[in-house]
Design a protein that fits this description.
With 296 residues, the protein is mostly helical. It has helices at residues 19-23, 42-57, 62-78, 82-99, 103-122, 129-146, 154-171, 181-189, 202-235, 239-258, 269-295.
Length: 296
């Protein structure tokens, strides 16, 4: 979108255009520019797509399922976010193992994927320019995911942000810096790389701002929701609740690594929609149990 930092029109919206990523991206010289969509940021878009993916994946409507899964998978990979890509793998693995119980299919997919990467690696020196281009694109993507290619030094920036946040936490004896404290603490120390003050790790942000006790309570709350969704998906006979519990279970599991990608998800609306829907499903399931007990 025009407001995206990767757009040539971004300067009209008060943003600085990012030329280096567009010209030196992980797909090398393919001319690839990362998608940003309605969230205007590649990481945020990737997380939004990841949260949405299970709702298509668990659908019984084949056309919607194929269209949604293929589209979202393509967009997610194109955002080139390691954390989001890991969440994507987790979704597919859990879907095949837990939801569909098809371990054999999962094994076949992994063998095919490994063979694809091996084959492209062997063809990376091909004299055919088209084959060479595709082969090196996949090779570059695998290197980026492993962390061997770090565009703009993002890994080192994130480490510095986390180290500064944890140092600030230690000064409060584990009580936390308070809401917005991590950003204020970083502003005092000076923006990392001259521009970053957000923690860029949602879970560490909760720890640094809320303190150890609050972070533990938050993790227990999150874990209890995931556990309840899993139980509902396996025991409930209501097809609608079963569908939503399966989808939300996959969404919340994949969100754990994906949340690290964004600068912060505190103001990330899709996350709050996910939480609200998950709590609603659990609440409806409990009401359903109460009605069954009364009827019996």
């Amino acid at each position: 979108m025009p407001i995206s930092s990767y757009s040539s029109f971004s300067s009209y919206f008060g943003k600085e255009e990012i030329d280096s990523f567009a010209s030196n991206n992980i797909l090398l010289t393919t001319g690839f520019v990362p998608p940003t969509g309605f969230h205007w940021n590649t990481n945020n878009l990737g997380i939004a797509m990841l949260i949405t993916l299970p709702f298509f994946l668990c659908s019984n409507k084949i056309i919607y399922k194929l269209f949604g899964v293929i589209s979202i998978t393509a967009i997610t990979i194109m955002t080139a976010s390691r954390a989001v890509f890991l969440g994507l793998i987790i979704i597919y693995c859990l879907y095949l193992i837990i939801i569909k119980k098809r371990v054999g299919t999962l094994f076949f997919i992994w063998i095919t994927t490994i063979s694809l990467f091996w084959g492209m690696n062997q063809l990376s020196d091909s004299e055919n320019p088209r084959i060479n281009e595709v082969a090196n694109s996949i090779k570059a993507l695998s290197l980026y995911i492993k962390g061997d290619i770090d565009i703009g030094g993002s890994i080192s920036w994130r480490r510095e942000l986390i180290d500064n946040g944890l140092e600030g936490l230690s000064k409060t004896y584990g009580l936390g810096l308070g809401a917005g404290g991590s950003t204020a603490n970083q502003e005092k120390l000076g923006p990392v790389a001259g521009q970053f003050t957000s923690m860029h790790n949602f879970w560490i942000e909760l720890l640094v701002e809320g303190g150890i006790i609050f972070a533990l309570l938050g993790l227990l709350w999150y874990g209890s929701i995931v556990y309840n969704l899993f139980i509902i998906s396996k025991t409930n006979t209501n097809s609608i609740l079963k569908y939503y519990s399966e989808s939300l279970f996959l969404s919340m599991i994949s969100f754990i690594p994906a949340a690290i990608a964004a600068s912060s998800t505190i103001y990330f609306f899709p996350m709050w929609i996910m939480f609200g829907m998950a709590i609603s499903v659990i609440s409806l399931y409990k009401k359903q149990l109460v009605v069954k007990i009364k009827n019996n």
